[in-house]
Amino acid sequence: MHFTLKSVAILALSGFSVGAVAATAIIRPAPTQLPRSVRPSHYDVSITPDAATAKFKAKVAIDVDVLIPTSSITLNAADLTFQHVRLVALESKARQLTATVGTDPNAQTATFKFAHPIAKGRYTLTLDYSGVIGTQAAGLFALDYDTPTGQKRALFTQFENSDARRMIPSWDEPNYKATFSLEATVPSAEMAVSNMPVTTRTDMHNGYSVVKFAESPKMSTYLLFFSSGDFERATASMDGTELGVITKRGDLSQAAFVLDQSKAILHEYNDYFGIRYPLPKLDNIAAPGRSQFFEAMENWGAIFSFEYGLLQDPSISTQHDKQEAFLVVAHEMAHQWFGDLVTMQWWDEIWLNEGFATWMESRMSERLHPEWNTALNAVPHTQHAMQVDALKTTHPVVQHIRTVEQANQAFDAITYAKGEAVIRMLENYVGADTWRDGVRAYMKEHQYGNTVSSDFWRQIDKAAGKPVSAIAHDFTLQPGVPMIEVSDVACHDGKASVTLTQSEFSKDQADKKPLTWRVPVVAQVVGSNEQTRVLVTDGQAKLTLSGCGTVLVNVGQKGYYRTLYTKDDIATISANFAKLEPIDQLGLLSDSVALGMAGLQPLSDYLNLAQATPTDADPQVWEQIAHAFGEIHDEYKGEPERRTAFDAFAIARLASIMTQVGWSAKDGELATIANLRETLIETLSQLGDAATVAEARRRYGARDNDLSATSTALRRVVMNVVARHADPAAWDRLHAEAQTEKSPLVKAQMYELLASAEDTELVTRALMLALTSEPGATTSGAMMTAAAKEYPDLTFDFAILHIDQVNKLIDNTSSSRFFPRLASGSMDPDMVTKINVYAIGHLQHSARGDADKVIAGIQNRVKRRAESLSAIDAWLAHMHRGMQQS
Ligand SMILES: [Zn+2]
Fold first, then answer.
1. Which residues are in the CB-under-5-Å shell of ion ligand 1?
2. Active site residue 332
3. Catalytic residue of the set 160, 173, 183, 332
4. Ligand 1 geometric centre to CA of 338 (Å)
5. Which tens digit of pLDDT belongs to each residue from 449-508?
6. Helices 780-790 and 744-754 sit at what angle, rounded to 10 degrees?
7. Residues 6 or more apart in contact with residue 429 via CB below 8 angstroms
8. Of 634, 633, 615, 554, whose CA–CA distance to 590 is shortest?
9. pTM across the whole model
């Protein structure tokens, strides 16, 4: 699955639930919540959905092996009603057994009890049943959308992690791999899509057709897919595979970019993995609407995406949207191997899917689009993980998972972003070719099977000829972030000597005894072209570097650790800041703001570095500064005078860069400049810069007469500014525009904008609107999330007050995280109590992970905030005095 890091929080103060810490790899049988007596090998599914009534009828014949004699069979089922059950032995078909059915809604299981014990052997279990079609993305669900000829409804499925059981009674755990044959009865005018190509389509002459799909390869239940609707499809071919894009009718041209890119991506993956993509076709399906849980899903051969993340709408899509779409497709296509061909044994090891697909999406974007310069994105990704990983509520990458709720919660920054960062560090440690050889051997050994992490490390150890797994265990079985302290920098005979001491970066456990990691470190004297590599073991290392001068640690920023310099060293680095590579500038800025906010380094160091950043620095370096300024602005909430002083400084600094970048794109400008323009306009708007607000309003007002006023690239960002600073009249105009907007994608974005106003009354109006059917069933949750950015307390209180209505507007996979996350920006100590009351009243203990993480973030912010803001005030005062004197 894909979640986006679009709004990476530089100062994000959140954490996660405590997991069991094991310092050594443990070998154990695959966990299961089902009895081990019976195993499925094949499912024959026939389904007849009735979109109009949101119900379906179905029949499944499951080939099973009874491994231990038993008088009952238990499998997963949720919200299904059984009409008929029979079991037939494969050898003696004459003997047919019937059973009584019991269901357990809490365990999401159905148990079929037989009058007599069933002997070991092969059987077919046939079930006639019915179920419901949901309005949110879990199980089989419907999405409604407007078209010029009226409203339409399309059906889709979303099964990860544990919702196949809502459509098919099944052994719905990743380790029970089986083959699937699917048949569906759909309106004859509609296109039906599944993992495999259609083999036959029979018109029943009653308005419906029966569509049969080819048998799937052996795979996990969560990867099955089915969809039906008024779609269009375009295809291309690469290495013998048919690549497809599927959209709702009329949008096909918006998928041209994705179809084109998927060719190059498939070709790269066929080479990298050493095993060709094994299915005859691979579709990317774009659906209207959204989920609070995910953006895209890697169903084998039938990747599902919400269209906001995939389609390039010529009226509104930006450079940033294009890059995002590429990342989504590259991520989901990487899963066709990491996840689909080789699957983790149990949700404990979900990082084997998500960490690897996230690392691969970055790798592909660097490789196929060097002009986007996305190598620098590694820094914000790693920062995102370290912020979460430095709170006491964090957990190891490989964590103990017992329940479905815990599995839902495992799709988090540690699994994705820390997973990616650890892979990048270890790949850099062993070398890219060696790493690829290990990946190939792992794929070959485990194709169509299930694995644990040690299966992977065994192949990397073998390829590298050295024990990488020991380092890997330190970083994946222990939680937390190492910190490398740099000291005793000296110069002898033209060589620099330096001492590195490993401690731990923690934001909320000052007295914690640091854990120990083996940390691969790369260091260099600035200006020298020789890097020195060392593995810091047992907490300390001394090293000698070629040349004397400013010593830089974590050169290239591939390490998963923070670097803490002495006061003198950081001053030298500041003085030489312009000479550093952009990626190291980015790493230093990010480390120093995080260390500053945690009270481990003076926050003035960050502000000095931001001052030392040359105006012609890499655009992504300026994006970091803009984001950090935006978050500092947020920290000043409730302190209007002090905030105004900071804003004035930040606006002056960013406005000079904005003048350079300009509002209009120049011919042939870098992709990174286009992205920086968007970020600067957003941040200057957030800081309340009058000039930016006035220019955005002017352009918005002129849009009908002057097409250049809001070019495609500017349309959304201009609307963002207008919406943020809207008065009631402007808000009403935007609302009227949202109501008449024809594109479902743009329409959903406009409703979100209505919720992003700074005016409290307008936000409240937007929240009331979110409870109605007007915005569309899947837009309301996104509106609340948008409102919570500026008003976490108000939005949380509103959502809790209307909890029953809100629960119907979000997918059940998200419910345990949706409410706490609304409050994550709060600075009110009372919010901790409110979240606790919510958690105790509505969540099982095992589902509290996200609530605890948000609580830890708020507690840390409340504790640290006064000191951080005083440090910034003092720096600003000092700078003003300096300016007056000079
Ligand atoms: Zn994924």
1. 1, 354, 357
2. yes
3. 332
4. 9
5. 999 999 999 999 999 998 899 999 999 999 999 999 999 999 999 999 999 999 999 999
6. 40
7. 468, 471, 520
8. 554
9. 0.94
